[in-house]
C-alpha cells in the first residue's frame, strides 16, 4: 500500500517495500503524488502476481 501526504510546501509519497518504509519527495501537487501512488501500487501488484 502506498499513500501521499503533505510535506513542507508540497507532497510526498510513502510506501512499504520489503518491510522498509520508503519515501519519495518533491511532488508539487496532490494529483502528482497520487499519480505516483497509482504507479507504485500497480508495480507492486504486477510484481507479486496479485490482482
CA radius of gyration is: 11 Å
> Spatial order of the strands in the main sheet?
1-2-3
Shape: flat
DSSP, total strands: 3
Structural class: alpha+beta
Q: Tell me the number of structural domains.
A: 1
Estimate what percentage of residues fall within beta strands. Answer: 35-45%
Main beta sheet, described?
3 strands, antiparallel
- Summed up, the helix count is 1
Spans of at least 5 consecutive residues whose pLDDT stays below 50 are: none
The ordered string of helix (H) and strand (E) elements is EEEH
Write down the overall mean pLDDT. 93
Portion of residues in helices?
Answer: 25-40%
The N- and C-terminal alpha carbons lie at a distance of: 13 Å
Characteristic key phrases:
single chain, 51 residues, alpha+beta, 3-stranded antiparallel β-sheet, 37% helix, 43% strand
Describe the secondary-structure layout.
Layout: E1 2-7, E2 10-17, E3 20-27, H1 30-48
Antiparallel strand pairs: 1-2, 2-3
